[in-house]
Automatic annotation (TrEMBL):
This is Radical SAM core domain-containing protein. SUPFAM superfamilies: Radical SAM enzymes. The keyword Transferase does not apply. InterPro entries: 7-CO-7-deazaguanine_synth-like, Aldolase_TIM, rSAM, rSAM_sf. Keywords: 4Fe-4S, Iron, Iron-sulfur, Lyase, Magnesium, Metal-binding, S-adenosyl-L-methionine. Residues 43-259 form the Radical SAM core domain. It comes from Chondrus crispus.
């Protein structure tokens, strides 16, 4: 019913309190959370809580955490077509490998693992920035609680929206990952990442030619060498015989004076 009061048309109001749905707490797709020591980049040796998130937008042939993203036969077939005998040997079950958890629950787990002695958190994956929307408040809460935050990212997803105090370890994938260059190298995103004062590049190298590709990317981005870190591909190089990292960099110092 409409009522008129002093020439003003009044419409009845309806309360939505009883019909509105409660807001769902933000959640993340989690692979694992554990305490360890950072083994890569500028903070090597620092005790940290590692928060490994699920899902990735790349499919590196040599990935050491395929259990975060390799869940379907079609994707496995495509990786195998590129990598041949070096392809990931199995497909993982997403239902057993990943857990949907609230950021409140994860925050409590991180604090419990950190105890009194750890004051750093490494957020890795997979590709963690794919879940950036629900990470923003979570990361801010960790920073407010006194934690230093590192992100491990492949440099294909913009970091825009993250708190500026986080450190970015940006790892562009080289040809040795056996993926098309247009998928693995996003120069504009890399420039966004490197605009952060707390950011470095980290490359996985397995043989001499990898360093030529590294130098090309570094030159395009015009960044100083102290912001570039190299790490070995592992005990076996998928591109041929493994070459010790010290040998690769030693030869490079002689032939690549600009690096």
């Amino acid at each position: 019913m409409l009522r008129v009061a002093r020439g003003i048309l009044l419409r009845p109001s309806f309360s939505t309190a009883s019909t509105s749905k409660p807001l769902k707490p933000p959640t993340l797709l989690l692979s694992e959370v554990f305490a360890s020591v950072q083994g890569e980049g500028p903070f090597t040796g620092r005790p940290s809580v590692f928060t490994r998130l699920g899902v990735c937008n790349l499919s590196c042939a040599w990935c050491d955490t395929p259990y975060t993203w390799l869940f379907d036969r079609d994707r496995h077939r495509k990786v195998a077509a590129r990598a041949g005998p070096h392809a990931q040997p199995r497909i993982y079950d997403k239902r057993t490998e990943l857990t949907r958890t609230t950021t409140d629950h994860l925050f409590r787990d991180v604090r419990a693992l950190a105890g009194e002695g750890i004051r750093a958190v490494v957020i890795t994956g997979g590709e963690p920035l794919l879940q950036k929307k629900h990470l923003q408040a979570f990361v801010t809460r960790l920073i407010d609680d006194g934690f230093a935050i590192e992100f491990e990212t492949n440099g294909t997803v913009s970091p825009e929206g993250l708190p500026r105090g986080v450190h970015l370890n940006v790892s562009p994938k080289l040809e040795n990952s056996m993926q098309p260059v247009e998928q693995r190298i996003k120069l504009q995103v890399l420039k966004e990442c490197l605009a952060w004062p707390n950011s470095v590049l980290k490359f996985v190298v397995g043989e001499h030619r990898d360093l030529d590709e590294v130098c090309g990317i570094v030159e395009q981005l015009d960044i100083p060498s102290h912001r570039v870190f190299l790490m070995p591909l592992g005990t076996v190089c998928i591109c041929g015989s493994a070459v010790p990292l010290v040998e690769i960099t030693g030869l490079s110092i002689e032939s690549q004076s600009s690096f």
